[in-house]
Amino acid sequence: MTRYANIPKPIRSGIVLLDPETGTPQRIIVLQFNPDTLERSLSPQTAGSGGDSGGGGAGSGDRNEALRLKGPAQETWKFTAEIDATDQFEIAAPDGIHPQLAVLEMLVQPTSTQLREASRQSKKGAIEISPIEMPLTLFTWGSKRVMPVRLTELSINESAFDVNLNPIRASLSIGLKVLTVSDLPMGHPGAELYYAHLAQKERLAAAARTAGIGSLGLGSAGIGAGRG
Q: What's the confidence (pLDDT) of residue 57?
């Protein structure tokens, strides 16, 4: 019974909702199962992305900007999460997985109270009604990946139900956009969290082993041969 005692307990991935003003955690959503795969995409924000104009003029300016970046890369994540009430032996589930689904669905829409307040302001003749601010959302994938995000996609496939038609098993396709300092104002808690996320990438990159140029079949003289 004790021979497995030293096996570490797996860390769960999850979503943390923070107060956008103070950064104080408001709710923590732990994914029941860690996704088997992650699809990540990074699109660099290059300075000379105006296209090829052909010949001189603006095209020459673009070539001068070929190695420059305007800001942080646009990063997106996609994964599939599973929810299964039959796996939750320690708690009763009279509503099936309705509560878990509702928590995720509320990440992409305002509350009824917020909508009623916006409606009241409109009826009072408010010229401009500010868009409803949602909590700051963090996605966590272990201690080395903690980043501010916006939910861009939530697709739910319910595949099993109890006798009262409560869903008890579902597969969710979730898409996230990492929020960068290009998306958030200076001093915002999310901006500081993005800086920390980027700094973590820098530390990991610095820890990577480097290879000699000889492993590519090239010599240092050959690399600079085209420069004159």
A: 47
